[in-house]
Design a protein that fits this description.
The protein is α/β, with parallel strands linked by helices. It has six helices and five strands.
């Protein structure tokens, strides 16, 4: 299921109560609703920060998906190359390339399975694969980075 604008606003669709409930009603307990795709990166961070899910909006969509066992794929992790310009992203983790910093943030986010990245050339593919040799951020490192970005 692709979930785009609805994850970036307060009073929208609730994965936790509306969609998951509907999937169970239509398809039963083993209904196959296991994954969503949503926009997420260092600047489109509402999936991590906006509490829009649940009866009293007490959960973010990522928290709801973790609780329901729904995997999340992140689209626009590079924000259509806008995050690759010089001095846009903060330095962290000894990652010199902006693409690596952008993807490291996304792939280190709890609840995200993988960033979805478009690649135009074999060089882009190799650059993105190079990041795989770097472990994801620990929960502490990720929390510190989010605090740094929020201040």
């Amino acid at each position: 299921m692709g979930v785009f604008q609805g994850t970036r606003e307060s009073s929208t669709i609730s994965i936790n109560f509306q969609v998951a409930k509907l999937a169970k009603e239509v398809g039963g307990q083993e209904n196959g609703f296991r994954f969503i795709q949503l926009p997420y990166n260092m600047y489109l961070d509402q999936a991590l920060t906006l509490k829009s899910q649940g009866d009293a909006s007490q959960y973010t969509i990522l928290e709801s998906c973790i609780n329901l066992g729904i995997g999340v794929f992140a689209s626009v992790p590079l924000m259509q190359a806008k995050l690759l310009a010089p001095n846009v992203l903060p330095e962290f983790g000894n990652l010199s390339k902006p693409s690596h910093r952008a993807m490291q943030f996304v792939r280190s986010t709890p609840g995200i399975i993988s960033p979805l990245v478009g690649q135009k050339t074999p060089a882009h593919v190799q650059e993105n694969l190079d990041l795989l040799s770097t472990p994801v951020l620990s929960q502490t490192e990720f929390t510190e980075l989010v605090s740094k970005l929020s201040s």
